[in-house]
Amino acid sequence: LRDYLRTIRLAFRLKGPPALPILGNVLTINDFKKLEEYGTNASQMYGSIFRCWISIVPFIWVYEPNHLKIILGSSKISRKNVFYSILHNFVGEGLITNNGYKWRKNRKHIQPYFHISILESYIDVFLENAHKFTSEFIKNGEGPVNITSFINRCVLNTLHESILGVPVDDESPYRKGEVMLTQRIARPWLLLQSIFNLTPFAEKEYHQKLSLHNYTRKVLEIRKKEYDKSSLRCLLDMFIEIAETNKDFSEEDMINEGVTFMLAGQDSVGAAIAFTLFFLAKHQEVQDKVYEEIDNLRTESMITVTQLNSMKYLEQVIKESLRLIPSVPILSRVLTEDVNLDGEILGRGTNVFISPFITHRLPHYFPDPLKFDPDRFSQENVERMHPYSFIPFSIGPRNCIGYKFALLEIKTILSVFLKQFRITLAEGHENYSLSYRVTLRAKGGIWLQLHSRTQTSSTAESRHAEQRKPWNL
Ligand code: HEM
């Protein structure tokens, strides 16, 4: 109670958007235009921190890189808060939602499997799915096309094979699924589990979780039967290897983490690819430079980590796109110690929102912040950048474990696709409007016009598929 009263006193002193009695600011969560406006102008409107109210609970928004260094730089200062416990209902208890010993133990076990030398083994899967994705348009014409659902399907297939080790089938519950978190925040009485349990949403969520977990359990059984230590094919195989030597990594851990990785790597990557394509279609001169970089690569049958790492300009473009539209625009934490942010004391127990979206638009770190300019990420500019000013994958001990995986995947898909097609924006779709459900997305999708770069529609996909071993389910 004392911690709560301290935060209330702080919240009354700080500036923030106008709030309704009892509801506070929760209605804004479905007002994407307002969210975008606050996100873009926060520092000019409110200074270096501001408050909002989720019903009667104050949340403090923190976005200055020096403040983020204090909060995200150490796992002792903050922990994941009640919103992540709500996500337990969806993803189960995995790296994203856990705190303390459970999180530390699993992160330590899994981290080595995200070393670049191991990620290399996924590149075949990335490449095959990149060719499948691209060949859909070779077969079906050049548009205009809403590219979003094609990207999402490609990303789902890629994850299914690299995390679970099996291709997507009709039974896969990962094809659908809906996070209830934002709906619950918009109706804060649903944040009380006992009330939420009385609603049909609770039952839907329960069945969703059950099917995700049951399906993953079934796949794990298959992987166990096929397990061959000398050729680990997917992340579940690696989990089996961890469990062999670590008694504290149980079957439940494998399932919870399997579900977590499947959900963490989908919409985040899908949004990053879709928005990067949008910006490339809008900025032809940038697209030309990317094409120049990938033109020399022979991506038909193989691609290596070295080649992917050599695509420096493409990486700058992806980063600039993630700066403007970070797939995960808001994180949340509760402080476990008092912190002093330039003279403002945030007490233990204070809930904070951390917003990559706001940080990435701070004009004192990114001049002319709304301008799409990949040169911000040239090597010399990056050397001068505050390390906590660009945080699409978060930063510190709880950063995204999958960020290298994501960058390799995104680069593979984009380079194969852009080698085949020049893209422009479809008529009438020159702008996007944002919507938000834990990740950002383009309302109505991203519409592109495709222009084939080669007249001979080489069936690179089939050539590549011939070289890969078939999946033996
Ligand atoms: C563009 C793509 C991606 C973006 C922008 C992204 C962003 C993030 C962010 C911001 C966090 C921190 C979340 C928080 O603190 O609440 C995070 C955590 C995480 N991400 Fe990603 N992610 C991406 C792709 C992936 C992929 C492909 C995977 C898995 C293959 C993945 C797995 C995870 C996991 C397991 C965590 C929790 C890590 C921990 O707390 O130890 N992510 N990601």
Structure notes:
The chain has 473 residues and is an alpha+beta fold. It has a single domain (2-467), classed as Cytochrome P450 (Cytochrome p450, Orthogonal Bundle). Helix content is 51%, strand content 11%. The chain contains 21 helices and twelve strands. It has helices at residues 2-13, 32-46, 65-72, 82-91, 100-110, 116-119, 123-140, 147-164, 181-186, 193-196, 200-226, 235-245, 251-264, 267-282, 284-295, 305-310, 312-324, 356-359, 379-384, 403-420, 460-467; strands at residues 49-54, 57-62, 78-79, 145-146, 331-335, 339-341, 344-346, 351-354, 421-425, 434-437, 439-442, 447-452. A five-stranded mixed β-sheet has the order 1-2-8-5-3, sandwiched between helices. A three-stranded antiparallel β-sheet has the order 4-12-9. Strands 6-7 form a two-stranded antiparallel ribbon. The longest helix has 27 residues, at 200-226. The chain is globular, with a radius of gyration of 22 Å. The termini are far apart. The relative contact order is 0.18. The model is unreliable at 456-473 (pLDDT under 50). It binds protoporphyrin IX containing FE.
